[in-house]
Predict the 3D structure of the following.
Amino acid sequence: MGLLAMKRMIKSLAIALWVGLILIIGPGLALAENPSHLFFNHSLLQNRDFSNQKLPAAEFANSNLEYANFDEAELRGSVFSRAIMLGVTMRKADLTYAMLDQVDFSQADLSDSIFTEALFLGSTFADTKITGADFTDAIFDREQLRQLCLRAEGVNSTTGVDTRYSLGCR
């Protein structure tokens, strides 16, 4: 086995372990912070205003959130799996440890938000604004990273992290 193949295998195992930990431990820790257990799964929430709200570990899986406003919301550990988030605004939101897999972020504004250790596998980002967003240790598909790096710019006003650096862009 060559060195490159071994590095790829180790990276794949590390990602699998990381995803497993996020799925098992992350939401559990966030639920401890949110005893109200907010569940919005399978909901029609278009144009709703969630701005400036504290919604740690809230669940929005399989929901339609088109044009919803999450500006400056605290969404640590929240779940948005398979949500429709066309045109959503999440400026300056905190989505640390969030699960955002298979989400349609077309025309969304994620500027200056924090996505540390978030999971984005299978999500789409057509015409998505990411200026100043912090994606430190977030998990993406290779093609997602390539597309995001084409428009990555700015520095997050809260963490001070450069968007390109947080994505690992070259």
